[in-house]
Specification:
Layout: E1 20-22, E2 35-37, H1 52-61, E3 65-67, H2 69-78, E4 88-90, E5 94-100, E6 111-119, E7 127-132, E8 137-140, E9 169-173, H3 187-204, E10 207-212, H4 219-229, E11 233-234, H5 237-243, E12 253-254, E13 262-264, E14 284-290, E15 303-307, E16 310-314, H6 321-331, E17 335-339, H7 360-367
Parallel strand pairs: 1-2, 2-3, 3-4, 8-9, 9-17, 10-13, 10-14, 11-12, 11-13, 14-16
Antiparallel strand pairs: 5-6, 6-7, 7-8, 15-16
Helix pairs in contact: 3-4
Length: 370
């Protein structure tokens, strides 16, 4: 059973650009941030965002938090103090020039920073940040998933000659860097497996309960179910409060429990399904979407039947180990910094995995807090 996350997966400071902080809002007392950036709204990337100390600091220094429009909508939906919204600036996909004020007492000059937002393929509103100054180029991936064969499609990470840009330092998501997570199925394969199971249930009049590992990140699944099967996914009032604001982006969800027999379930145990299924069905199928349990799967089907009423589907919103290594090898940065785990470069080297060393469970605690 996972414990409550105790700290952020990334400590916040971009060392190459003084005063630039990303995905961590906790350390205002010991550092001098000049700007904050938020890649996406999962809790392990938002530590300290709603703290009184952060609000006090950004008000006194008149500095801002930069993020996407969708992330701002999520923050607005969850905050208890709208004052923070006055200090958030929306960035769109593509490049923007941001000025970081100088800090004379620390001999830090004013910095002109070009920030390029690149889709991260992780959850709604998630982006990678490419930071460029006159002296350095830094890529912060945030949590991301990009198929190796699709990297060339990302214009923001290529120059005018369509060649990979030169990256000095890459901060990269290493959630699944462990040897036991060498490969994950493509999301299209996972979607196909989900659709087949749902079609089977619909043909018998059974209900379907979906369980996801995080609050956001599965909108693509809901939309594909609606696109292919013409059925929406019921979400409770808490989720609907946000989704209704972006209904044009998530047409596959509804809050009308009479409109569908597919339900986003908040219960992990299928034995307790009766409290969250909107209507009573004679039968139902519980579909659990996750990636953490799928270890040592070089060749496998993306689905595992756990019981007559439950199937688990491997749906990964982070890169597998091979995808991480492929991404780094494509750009060949001068320096690589991994989070939440150290970046492990070698391919095919025999060594103990984190699971064998007993470190994997602590890794899970640190990372999966959404």
């Amino acid at each position: 059973m996972f414990q409550r996350c105790l700290r952020s997966s990334f400590q916040g400071k971009i060392e190459e650009i003084p005063g630039l902080h990303v995905d961590n809002f906790e350390y205002v007392e010991s550092t001098t941030p000049r700007a904050y950036f938020l890649s996406h709204c999962h809790s392990d990337h938002m530590q300290g965002l709603h703290s009184p100390s952060l609000l006090k600091y950004i008000k006194e220094k008149n500095i801002f938090i930069y993020t996407t429009e969708l992330s701002v909508a999520i923050i607005k939906d969850n905050t208890k103090d709208d004052t923070i919204l006055d200090y958030i600036k929306v960035l769109k996909l593509g490049s923007t020039l941001v000025t970081l004020e100088g800090i004379p007492e620390e001999n830090i000059d004013e910095t002109y920073l070009t920030v390029t937002l690149v889709p991260a393929g992780h959850c709604v509103g998630a982006v990678m940040f490419l930071f460029q100054t006159i002296n350095t180029t830094v890529l912060f991936t945030g949590d991301f998933r990009i198929n190796e064969r699709d990297i060339y499609k990302y214009a923001g990470l290529h120059d005018v000659a369509e060649k990979p840009i030169k990256i000095n330092t890459m901060y990269i998501d290493t959630t699944f860097i462990d040897l036991v997570y060498e490969n994950f199925p493509k999301r299209s394969q996972s979607i196909d497996a989900i659709l087949k199971e749902i079609e089977r249930c619909l043909s018998t009049g059974s209900g379907v309960a979906l369980h996801t590992s995080a609050k956001y990140g599965y909108e693509y699944v809901f939309n594909k179910i609606y696109e292919k099967l013409g059925r929406k996914v019921y979400v409770n009032e808490d989720r609907w409060r946000f989704y209704r604001k972006i209904s044009h982006l998530v047409p596959g969800v509804t809050n009308n429990n009479n409109e569908t027999i597919i339900h986003l379930c908040t219960k992990r145990d299928e034995k307790n399904h009766s409290t969250c299924i909107p209507r009573n069905y004679p039968q139902f199928l519980y579909i659990h979407l996750s990636a953490m349990k799928w270890i040592n799967s070089n060749t496998f089907k993306p689905i595992q039947r756990m019981s007559p009423t439950r199937v688990d589907v491997c749906f990964a919103t982070h890169c597998s180990r091979s995808e991480i290594l492929g991404f780094v090898n494509y750009f060949k940065p001068d320096r690589v910094i991994g989070f939440p785990n150290p970046y492990i470069e070698e391919r095919g080297v025999k060594r103990k995995s984190l699971r064998e060393e007993g470190k994997l469970e602590s890794m899970i605690v640190k990372k999966f807090c959404s």
